[in-house]
Specification:
Radius of gyration: 26 Å
Number of helices: 16
Structural class: mainly alpha
Largest sheet: 2 strands, antiparallel
Strand content: under 5%
Number of strands: 4
Mean pLDDT: 77
Shape: globular
Amino acid sequence: MLLLVVVVGVLGLCVTRSRLSAAVLLSAVGIAVTIQIFGLGAPDVGLTQLLVEALTIIMFVLVLRRLPRDFITASRPRNTAAIVLAVLTGITTTIGVLVFTGRRERSPIGVYLLENGPEITGGSNIVNTILVEFRALDTFGEVAVLGVAGIAILGVLGSVRATAQTMDPESVRETLPGSAKSTGTAAEALEDAARNTVPLKLLARGVTPVLAVVSVMLLWRGHNEPGGGFIAALVAACAFALVYLARESDRPVSRPSTPVALIGGGLVVAGLTGIGGYALGQFLQPAQGYFLGQRLSSALIFDLGVYAGVLGLVMTAFNTLGAGRAPAEVVSGPDAPDTGRRRSGPRKTGGGADTGVTGGTPGTRRGTDEEVAR
């Protein structure tokens, strides 16, 4: 059944012309793969895949709304070439998986970690203990890469003007089936954001606190049960996504400085944890101890840094892609580029005459700053 879902989703991707439909079908394929991962007994990987799919589809839609609704119609030779390339890629990938991973025994280091990991780390979740203790340096590097990616998003999108397209009631009617003068419930729902977001607002009231609690639980129990800093941060990001989707207008989910503080703070916390490991012998070596009869590890503090870094990255994406204004306005600061808004007063042309902001005859000014920005 899962294979059937994947095949149907891929075939739909090959024939659809709608960018939005393609994003939804791609997410359906990812969800089917997620179920397969759970069936193979990898709940940590399955949770990560599920949460990434949920957040990715939202990011896709935020980007797609700045692009044309449909793909450009391709010629038949180009479609044929794409199909052949896709089939060859699938066959090659399948053979590679069977040869390199599916037909080998467990490695000696893998067997060692399975047999001795719980005793060494005091945690029964081998996946998490490998990530935050045995391979902590790799994880620290990955968090650093995520942090750099978040700052790069702010830098790149903050250096260009936004071209977000706003949908006015007339354009909404034109995109709906039927005549351009349609006044049905669908048109009214699209035009009335207050009514259209009521169900999500009601859902957010009950689900957001639950997601917050689950996020903390996953962070706390990651050493012994499926969870950890990365998964916990994705759950918290889903709560922010729900709050964003329930709003009537496109607004940042936080202050511009909050994601940067989370990314920087997460890297600092993880780095200080690593430096503290020198007291025990080497960088990022965890300290073990007991508190109220429960064995604790300093890896939990390291995981907290991972949590902050991942959450900051997702919030950065929402603030820059989801805000209904220019990224330069989202990334405030003295170096923010001009977004089309001009100071009051006349300006000089090449010939020295005063002209209005938006053009026109010399010595005149047409429209307010807000109109010019629009």
